[in-house]
Each structure stands twice: as C-alpha cells, then as structure tokens.
Design a protein that fits this description.
heterodimer; A: 245 residues; five-stranded mixed beta sheet; 28% strand; globular; B: alpha+beta; OB fold (Dihydrolipoamide Acetyltransferase, E2P); five-stranded mixed β-barrel; four-stranded mixed beta sheet; 5 helices; flat
C-alpha cells in the first residue's frame, strides 16, 4: 500500500475528519431561470452543477419513446478545469458514459416516471471541481434539481462513498483517500424507506466486512439526506413567501 | 461605450420581509396523513397505506381530496386556457405546437378557422397547403379545446382573437406566475397589447389599428412599428422580467402598475437589480392600496 497513512492512531483522517464524519455540504436550488430545475452543490471541495429539463416531448430519436412511462436521459460531464491535470474532453469518454448510465439507473428508481408516458426527462450534471466522490455529489445535486423542477419522486436520492481502512469504514472519501488504494463502495439510497437505488463496488473486500461497510454507507447517506432536506425546506419557505398570498 | 459594473451583493427578495413559518409545506417523501379516509390527488402517492408527498410544495385540501402543488412545474393545461405556442412540426391534418407542456400540443386542421368563412369544408388541398397557413417556427395564440388521456393538449383557434402572431416580443416565464382571469388579452393604456398565456408565454405587440375581419388570423402585418411603440414594448418586457424575478403574480393591473413605476427610469436600466427591486416594491404598494 502507499506510504500515506489514511487513518492515524488517534482516529483522524488526512483531512482531519473523524472516520464517520461527512464533508461540509452546501447547496442552492434554482440557480438558472431558463431550465425547469437546477441546483448547485458543494461537498467539501467537490462541486457540481445539475440541470433538469422536462418532462417534455421526445427529442432526437422518436424510437426510444416508451408508451407507459417517461424516458430519463442523463449526461455526466466534467469541466476541463475540474481536475489537477487538464482534461481533454469534458464528456463522451468511457468513464463519463458509465457514470451517465449509473445516474440514469439511480433516477429511474426514484422518479415516478409512469406518470409521464411518452415524454423525456433530461438530467445534465457537470462536475466543476473534482475532489473525490463525484458520483455521490452528482446524485445529490441532481436530486435537488429534480425537486426544483417539480418532478414527482418517491423520496430523495442520497448517495455517499465509503471506504474500508484498518477495519474501519470511512465515510465520504476525498480524492486523496480514493486514490490511496482503499476498497470503496458507492451507495445511492432512498433514505426514508431504506431502499437502495444503486450499489457499486469495484474493489476487493472480504465478505465479512460488507455488512459493516453497507451499514456505514447508509448512515452517511441519511446524514446527507438531512442536509438536503434542510436546503429544500429553506428554498420552499423562501419561494412560497413570495408567491403565496 | 459605457459599461456598467458591480460587485456581488447578497440581495434579499423584496417580500421576504414578511417571513412566516408555513406548516403546509412538504417535501418528497413526507407523510401527509396516515388516515386512509382521504383521496390521493396530484403530487402524492400511497406508500404502505400512508399518503405521501412526491413533490415539494404546498398541500391543498378539498374535502377528501389531497393534492400537493409544486412551486414550479411545466404547464398543466385545462380546457379553456389561453396559450401562446410555437409550431414545431407540420403533420397530416395537424400541427404540433410547443406550449411548455409535458407533451407537444396538437392543433388539428379541423379546429382552425380557414380563410373563407366558418362553414368551409376542409379538402385535400387544404391538407397540402397547411404549411402556407402556419409553418415551423410560427407563433400562435390559441385556446385549449380538450386534454387527451396522456396529458397532451388539443388546441383550437376558432375565434378571431386567436391565430398567428405577427410582430412583437415573446417573454417566457413560469406558468405559475400567470394569474387566471376572465380575459388574457389586454390592450394596455400605455399603447401596447399583451397576451398573458396561461402556459407562461407572454406576447407583447403593438395595439392593432383596426381589426381586419376577413383575415381569419393567418395574415400578419409587416408594417414597420414606430420607435415609440417599440420603446413601450421593450419597457413592458423588462417590467415583466422584473416582476417575474420577484415572483409577483402577473395580470393586467400588476403589469400596468409596474410600467407606471418604471417610467422614471430608462428602459435598459429597468433590468438592473436595484432598479428592479425599487419598481417591484412600488408596484406591490400600489396593488395593496388598490385592494383596500
């Protein structure tokens, strides 16, 4: 393993957090006027912008139309300046395509697509600054954008990555930790019911540890959901004062 | 050219001063009631026999029916709504119209007034010359005739007030900002006319001199519009944007009051945040005074 000590003897991580501590989450809804829904979310140093258009008539290939529900179309992209080394193409490479698919699956589980037959919902997410946990930050930002667009969802979708170091699960990994050879797991959760929308792990982990890791991920997701909930209620309060009579 | 620069300032929306704690606001996943005696309306679903909200918004209760109305959505058309829309496609016997709705609306050839009188039969030639009446990109005003089962709207223009729109300015706003009223067509005393589409599309145009009866709403004048009229229209557009930015309901009186309050500023200055704030404040005061 790399020389970096991810968890000190005192139980602190490289950025000074405790093992179960999340990064600071800040978010804002309704950042664009033109889009149906939009949100900006910062989780530590990872920053993402999500925009939702729809539900609207199918654009592009009509053949993808579903007659009993809406099609969800996701696009994940990373700004060329988001990483330490400048990226060549913001989207369209293998990694982004995979990420787009994951986002699509996540939101198909949460959005009530059966209410909008023959329509399409577009979700565009852009990472402005990447510092680990890109998938989770995208999901969290997109959730806020979907809510802002007034599209019915079963529940919030909250996502978090967790890693496993020295028999301890670490919540909400940052870039340094993700790169340090930690076996990490990304989980998207519908927190109220506890249903899992997406679970992804492409590292080796002993079967015995999976349970604890999942448990830690769920707690972390619920923590995120509390923050998102606060943001949404705050936003609701502000806007309803203006429009309400 | 003089450029206008400003530093970032946190601006509180005008009407936030009267902040009250609202109890009837819910977010997706909130349980509204676990009582099974209620009916499930829009924006809700039943999860384990509990009525749960699926959108963020305010709860509305009519007898046994519970709905959640989101603060911002696409246009949900109802029969009789006035809409402004753009033709996206010409098909056989119908036009597809983009109306900010969930699905494109349909304007059937049989629900438009063709030139030559009400009782004209629609022949095969009419189908071939559809593009001469309305082609892709044209703007129209119309009324919702019916709603299909999948939520798509069927429009009609069977009145002389509806039809193709000529010279003017389109402002696209949120449908929830338009106040439902008896009439959505107004000739404002400031010298311009306005169509407040229920779908959030607002059309500003110079007040036509005399109503030409025989045109059937397909021919639009290409006479140059005078500078003063264009100025009035631009000012109205900026006023609409100001009102929308501060989430003030739009109807003829609010637009007119806002126009009057903006007269002391130059047209381009109306878009400046501090000017917007000032004129919206004045407008709200006038509206309150008028209410009594």
């Amino acid at each position: 393993m790399a020389g970096l000590e991810l968890l000190s003897d005192q139980g602190y991580r490289i950025d000074g957090r405790k093992a179960t501590e999340l990064r600071k989450v800040q978010a804002r809804m309704g950042v664009f006027a033109q889009a149906d829904g939009s949100a900006y979310l910062e989780q530590g140093n990872t920053k993402a912008l999500a925009v939702v258009y729809g539900p609207h008539e199918m654009r592009g290939s009509r053949s993808r139309t579903l007659h009993d529900r809406a099609v969800i179309n996701c696009q994940y992209s990373m700004a060329t300046f988001s990483t330490a080394e400048r990226k060549r193409r913001p989207h369209g490479d293998r990694k982004s395509t995979e990420m787009s698919l994951h986002l699509k699956q996540t939101f198909e589980a949460a959005v009530m697509t059966q209410l909008y037959p023959r329509s399409q919902i577009d979700i565009y997410v852009k990472i402005l600054q990447s510092d680990g946990g890109n998938y989770s930050v995208c999901v969290n930002a997109a959730t806020l954008a979907v809510i802002d667009a007034g599209i019915p969802m079963r529940d919030y979708v909250c996502a978090c990555t967790v890693g496993f170091v020295d028999e301890t699960p670490l919540a909400d990994l940052c870039y340094a930790e993700e790169g340090g050879g930690v076996s990490s797991l990304a989980l998207a959760l519908l927190p109220r019911g506890g249903q899992i929308a997406l679970l992804q792990m492409d590292a080796r982990l002993h079967q015995d540890h999976l349970e604890t890791l999942m448990e830690a991920a769920m707690t972390a997701c619920k923590g995120v959901s509390k923050v998102l909930d606060e943001v949404v209620r705050q936003h609701l309060q502000e806007v309803s004062v203006l429009t309400g009579e | 050219m003089a450029a206008d620069m400003r530093l970032p300032v946190i601006r509180k929306p005008v009407s936030l001063i009267v902040s009250t704690d609202r109890r009837d606001l819910v977010v997706p996943g909130d349980v509204i009631t676990s009582d099974t005696g209620f009916m499930r309306g829009h924006g809700t679903y039943v999860d384990e026999e509990k009525l749960t909200a699926s959108v963020a918004g305010e709860v509305q209760r009519v007898d046994k029916l519970i709905c959640v109305r989101p603060l911002k959505t696409r246009f949900n058309g109802e029969v009789g709504d006035v809409v402004v829309g753009r033709i996206t496609e010409v098909q056989q016997k119908r036009w597809k119209v983009e109306t900010n709705s969930r699905l494109d609306s349909v304007l059937l050839l049989s629900s438009v007034n063709l030139p030559g009188g009400e009782l004209r039969r629609r022949s095969a030639e009419d189908e071939l010359t559809m593009r001469e009446y309305l082609q892709e990109g044209d703007l129209i005003s119309a009324e919702v005739q019916s709603v299909f089962s999948d939520g798509a709207l069927s429009l009609h223009t069977r009145s002389l007030k509806y039809g193709k729109l000529g010279q003017g300015v389109l402002v696209q706003l949120s449908p929830s900002l338009i106040k439902r009223q008896k009439s959505h067509f107004h000739n404002l005393p400031c010298g311009a006319s306005i169509i407040l589409g229920n779908n959030g599309f607002v059309w500003l145009y110079p007040t036509p001199g005399q109503q030409e009866e025989e045109a059937g709403g397909f021919y639009t004048s290409h006479e140059p519009v005078s500078l003063s009229d264009r100025e009035v229209i631009s000012r109205l557009r900026n006023c609409l944007l100001a009102l929308a930015a501060h989430k003030v309901l739009l109807f003829d009186t609010s637009v007119l009051y806002c126009y009057e309050s903006s007269l002391q500023h130059q047209v381009k200055d109306v878009l400046k945040p501090e000017v917007m704030e000032e004129i919206v404040m004045l407008t709200q005061q006038k509206l309150l005074e008028q209410e009594g």
